[in-house]
Amino acid sequence: MPYIAKIKVTLRQSILDVQGKAVDHALKNLGYRTVESARIGKYIEVTIHETELAEAERIGNEISRKLLSNPVMENYSLELVHIQ
Amino acid sequence: MSDMSVGVVVFPGSNCDHDTEHAVASFPGIKSVMLWHNDHDLQDAKAIILPGGFSYGDYLRAGSIARFSPIMKEVIEFARKGFPVLGICNGFQVLLESGLLEGALSRNRDKKFLCSQTHIRAVNGSTIFTSLYPEDEVLSIPIAHGQGNYFAPPEVIESLEEHQQIVFKYTDAGGKITDEANPNGSLNNIAGIVNRQGNVLGLMPHPERASEKLLGSLDGRGLFESLFLHIAEV
């Protein structure tokens, strides 16, 4: 049974997130005074046909580093969900 | 002597490929060959240019998918052997994604897509791409990008500076490197860098759009001319 790799890619804190900043301003303009900040990232789902969790995890990490994120300016997180 | 070939890579979504071809072909003794991204053959080109545009629609990140195009395997090998590779705008983004150059380009500081004439200076005039530019000459060359904000960790910037790898910087009309003259928020006003070996250059401004009198500036020609002089000598 396959796994779904749920990958979230976000800009590193040291990189100015101009989209997040625009959304943050818009939320404040709407009157949400307790909104402190907003960050925008990407969410990617990849279906991987592997039976072993460890192998699906290895592939998930490899593709995240190689293509889905750019380690110079982004971080990623990986979650694997087993499909029954 | 037959004309020397210069290859212009065409990715799906490249849109400055023909402008670049046009500029390249205007130099005597040079012919341009278009190299499709799915090809493997560099067709005996003496230099390769990755043009501007939106390769693969800039999906995921600018340049990230183009970097894995079949032809890039050959381009990376060509660069590693020391042959000249020039990346303009999206081509610069592809070079960074492929690891041939260090750093990354994120969204412009002011969120806007910028399309305007800018001033730059070749702060290193001793590369094969800038040998004809005096370091104090202010060049008027257009930019057109949404993600041209150059970033690299402090240790990389330090090393780039130490090895004279910063080649172009944004300046004001008088040639001063100021924050006001920085269009996109790039660290230290960086507009273009070269690799340690000196054979791979990436820059955000478009020299091919400043290579004909009709376009309002001829200042981009010096870059192509420097490069073609170099390949003629090799």
Number of helices of chain A: 2
Arithmetic mean of pLDDT of chain B: 96
Cα(first) to Cα(last) distance of chain B is 14 Å
Number of spatially distinct domains of chain B: 1
What does the overall shape of chain A look like?
elongated
Gyration radius of chain A (Cα, Å) is: 16 Å
Total count of helical runs of at least 4 residues of chain B: 5
The neighbouring-strand order within the major sheet of chain B is 2-1-3-4-11-10-9-6-7
How much of the polypeptide of chain A forms β-strand, as a percent range? 25-35%
Label the CATH architecture of chain B.
Answer: 3-Layer(aba) Sandwich
CATH architecture name of chain A: 2-Layer Sandwich
Largest protein-protein interface: A-B, 13 and 20 residues
Compressed to H and E, one letter per element, the order of chain A equals EHEHE
Structural write-up:
The complex is a heterodimer of chains A (84) and B (234). Chain A has helices spanning 18-29, 53-68; strands spanning 3-11, 41-48, 74-82. Chain A is an alpha+beta fold and 84 residues long. Chain A has one domain: Phosphoribosylformylglycinamidine synthase subunit PurS (Mth169, Chain: A), CATH 3.30.1280. The longest helix of chain A is centred in the last third of the chain and has 16 residues, at 53-68. Chain B has 234 residues and is an alpha/beta fold. Helices cover 21% and strands 26% of the residues of chain B. Chain B has helices spanning 17-25, 70-80, 90-97, 154-162, 221-233; strands at residues 4-10, 30-36, 47-50, 85-88, 104-106, 114-122, 138-145, 149-151, 166-171, 190-194, 200-203. In chain B, the strands form two sheets. Chain B has a nine-stranded mixed sheet with strand order 2-1-3-4-11-10-9-6-7, sandwiched between helices. In chain B, β1, α1 (17-25) and β2 form a beta-alpha-beta unit. The mean pLDDT of chain B is 96. Classes of the chains: A alpha+beta (84), B alpha/beta (234). At the A-B interface, α1 of A face loops of B.
